[in-house]
């Protein structure tokens, strides 16, 4: 995060915001700057990628599902907008530790004898470490003593859209993001790679809420995608993982997605639409025809 803060200082904060007498490495100035940068980045990532996904990937026929709530998209957005500033407060404290040199983030590829190999291994290590940690945190949030206080707000959305991706109780959102911040304090990681992974995990979180259930056949047993996560929202006790199915299989919480078995929410909407068409056989069934094309890309 110090790379982002340095750029923000150089192009914006130092010339236009703070007095020249306030040094850039002052801890209070860094805290304020990180709060601004973190919230600005979070809102931009959320609205840019969730909006793109909503209009170009998300299957809008899911909005006909009976468990899709009234004004749900608006409610998801408002919940996210209200939660993100609160999530940013503890997040900034961790970013501050990184900026002040307490993490194992590094600048140069040459700092390790294996160079690029170490960098590639660190990416894989980051994914597997955070997937494991998020699985157990997420599963813990489903414990009856925590669920109703922290995680239940995210399960309001039984049929989520991309805008539900960040619609968490603030403490829930922070706890599930914590593994991303813990990793560079435990393992060396290149600063640019860390920023790239930070963007990636936000995009991934949006993608598993987007209702696009397509997965290459060879990856279906491995990848925890939108089909798995939609079933998690619908059936509660399954598919807690973030990227992979590994820990769900180890922990006994894996469920083969209903969408892969032809019983998912899109199939339900299609059958519901066909039944409505049959009951209105005299009107040409125009609405039903408009839905039929949407199912070919997903189920």
From TrEMBL:
This is Lathosterol oxidase. Pfam families: FA_hydroxylase. One of its GO terms (molecular function) is iron ion binding. It comes from Vicugna pacos. One of its GO terms (cellular component) is membrane. It is found in: Membrane. Signal peptide: none annotated. One of its GO terms (biological process) is lipid biosynthetic process. Residues 124-252 form the Fatty acid hydroxylase domain. Keywords: Membrane, Transmembrane, Transmembrane helix. PANTHER family: STEROL DESATURASE (PTHR11863). The chain crosses the membrane at residues 32-56, 77-96, 116-137.
């Amino acid at each position: 995060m110090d790379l982002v803060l340095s750029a923000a200082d150089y192009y914006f904060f130092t010339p236009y915001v703070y007095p020249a007498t306030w040094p850039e490495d002052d801890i209070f100035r860094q805290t304020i700057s990180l709060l601004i940068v973190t919230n600005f980045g979070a809102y931009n990532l959320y609205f840019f990628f969730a909006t793109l996904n909503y209009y170009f990937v998300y299957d809008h026929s899911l909005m006909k599902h009976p468990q899709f709530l009234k004004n749900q998209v608006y409610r998801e957005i408002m919940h996210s907008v209200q939660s993100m500033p609160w999530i940013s407060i503890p997040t900034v404290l961790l970013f501050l530790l990184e900026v002040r040199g307490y993490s194992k983030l590094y600048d140069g590829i040459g700092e390790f004898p294996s160079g690029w190999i170490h960098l590639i291994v660190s990416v894989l290590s980051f994914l597997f470490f955070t997937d494991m940690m998020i699985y157990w945190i997420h599963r813990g949030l489903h414990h009856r003593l925590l669920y109703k206080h922290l995680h239940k707000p995210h399960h309001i959305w039984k049929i989520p859209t991309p805008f539900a991706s960040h619609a968490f109780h603030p403490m829930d959102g922070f706890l599930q993001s914590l593994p991303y911040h813990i990793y560079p304090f435990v393992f060396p990681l290149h600063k640019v790679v860390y920023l790239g992974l930070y963007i990636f995990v936000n995009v991934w979180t949006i993608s598993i809420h987007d209702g696009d259930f397509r997965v290459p056949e060879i990856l279906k047993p491995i990848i925890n995608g939108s089909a798995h996560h939609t079933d998690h929202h619908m059936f509660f006790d399954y598919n807690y993982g973030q990227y992979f199915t590994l820990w769900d299989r180890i922990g006994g919480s894996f469920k083969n997605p209903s969408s892969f078995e032809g019983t998912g929410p899109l199939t339900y909407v299609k059958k519901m639409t066909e039944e409505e068409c049959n009951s209105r056989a005299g009107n040409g069934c125009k609405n039903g025809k408009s839905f039929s094309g949407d199912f070919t890309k997903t189920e």
